Amino acid sequence: MVVVTSQEMRELEKCAIEKFEMTEEILMERAGISTVQAIWNEYGSLSEKNFVVICGPGNNGGDGYVIARDILNYTEAVRVITLGEPKTEVSKINRNRFLKHGGIIYKYEELGLEKTIEMISSADIVIDAIFGTGLKREITDESIANLIEAINIYSNCVVSVDIPSGIDTDTGEILGSAVQATMTVTFGFPKPGHLLFPGRDLIGKLKIAKIGIPSQTFLSESFKRFLITGENLKKPLRPRWAHKKSFGEVIIIGGSKQYIGAPVLSALAAQKTGAGMVKIIGPSEVCDIALSYDPSLICYRMDSVSKDFVSSVVKNCSENSVIVVGPGWGQDNFDEKINILSFIITEIQNPVIIDADALNILSSNVDILKQKEITKSILLTPHPGEFSRITKLSTKEVKGNYTLAERFSEEYQVITVLKDATTIVTDGNTTFFNISGNTSLAKAGSGDILSGIIGSLISQHLDPLEAVKTSVYIFGIAGEMIQAEGFNSSYDVISKLPEAFSKI
Ligand SMILES: NC(=O)C1=CN([C@@H]2O[C@H](COP(=O)(O)OP(=O)(O)OC[C@H]3O[C@@H](n4cnc5c(N)ncnc54)[C@H](O)[C@@H]3O)[C@@H](O)[C@H]2O)[C@@H](O)CC1
Ligand SMILES: Nc1ncnc2c1ncn2[C@@H]1O[C@H](COP(=O)(O)OP(=O)(O)O)[C@@H](O)[C@H]1O
Ligand SMILES: [K+]
């Protein structure tokens, strides 16, 4: 599903008007009416309910006037509270139409907070049409902040028009204060602000309404960001004649005296998601534990970290092999680990997934990535802490920062998987948001499992970007399958992977 920013939405609107002879009025009319339709679909007949619609000064407020007018067709119990004169022509037209239809408008300024609270708390449904995609700066006006707080405290049910007022459409950040919606009806396409926290927490149920923005091919060619849904995800083929070498192998380099389990989790996840052969290069402790869990793993005991040892195992691997480096690796023997990283980035042609401690080690010299051959696939799977070390920016600056991930991927020609409750996947040209999963995945060891799955799917010949999309989605679904959310260890998620896979 396509995701657009506020700027892209404005361009689409402009294009619909200039090239398809639509008008602002038609789009606003459809936005308003589709919101009323969504309310009906969700909450049933409107005639027995009473509504308060709160309209801001821009076109979001304009949608609010259309909604209020349309509700008049079902009930007279609809009142508008306005924050002031509409500032756009089309909004004014719709304010006037509402008045002509017998609608009642109260000015928030004159009503005061106390009366407003009375109206809000007595309404069955409050419609939040204060700010939409046009909100770009902090809400500093105290009276608006008080209004938003009152909506959040006193409303029975809040439907936000396009996006809850106060959320930055492009980042999901709260600009001072923001409405907590029960349902949000957005127009045309979801926006990043609906998908990224904290915005994602405030939207309630998200409905996407078509308002007449044409989805012609030439428009879709310019789309570059998407929400991952269960549809159209690629699965590896498993031809009946396949034997273990029909697929490549997954070679996991990781583990240390301190972190013994991490590469084992990666290896088991690779096994459970269809890999033909899984190898571990790590200390004896790691190998012993790995084999006790699954005797079919192939382990190479590397008790002192050595590039030559890695090279001897990896040099002769098949062209379909995939390397996962980093789970539980630790940061001791730093120089030799940098040598190993440099070797597998620059001298081996196979796809490499750089995860966990390998990312921390890489952050000392990210430019090694630039020495790779242009056709070689490198994937980085950082959480915000790791991405912050790599980019030398604060965690706050990198969290949910899809444009930064895009620029990074473009500069270093890698696939970046910025893991979080909403995960961002990008190769620099196309970006995907993943929202499957829940806090059952917020556990030590989760990331190791994900890198094992990605390695496994690439080894089964999926294109690396497609492999990541499928991996993050099914990993999320596996997390959602845990019976009581969070009452699990990350290890438990591995056993859910086959069933999660069968759902796509
Ligand atoms: N783009 C499109 O294709 C369509 C957009 N429509 C609606 O139009 C909305 C966007 O309308 P606008 O661009 O007019 O913007 P908004 O209505 O979202 O907000 C802009 C208004 O709020 C004021 N404002 C912004 N930040 C403020 C702050 N921090 N404190 C106080 N006031 C602030 C601005 O001065 C301006 O008057 C969408 O969210 C949607 O609801 C729909 O009518 C249908 C079509
Ligand atoms: N609240 C959540 N909702 C969905 N997915 C989550 C959530 N918390 C964590 N995850 C997922 O779990 C994984 C955690 O990875 P990471 O932080 O690297 O774990 P670790 O370092 O312990 O292995 C990521 O794939 C992330 O997207
Ligand atoms: K709104």
Automatic annotation (TrEMBL):
SUPFAM superfamilies referenced in this protein's UniProt entry, alphabetically: Ribokinase-like (SSF53613), YjeF N-terminal domain-like (SSF64153)
GO term, biological process aspect, one: metabolite repair
UniProt-recorded name of the protein: Bifunctional NAD(P)H-hydrate repair enzyme
Name of the gene: nnrE
Top-level taxon in the UniProt lineage: Bacteria
Family per record: In the N-terminal section; belongs to the NnrE/AIBP family.
Pfam family, one: Carb_kinase
GO molecular function: ADP-dependent NAD(P)H-hydrate dehydratase activity; ATP binding; kinase activity; metal ion binding; NAD(P)HX epimerase activity
Species classification: Bacteria, Thermotogati, Thermotogota, Thermotogae, Thermotogales
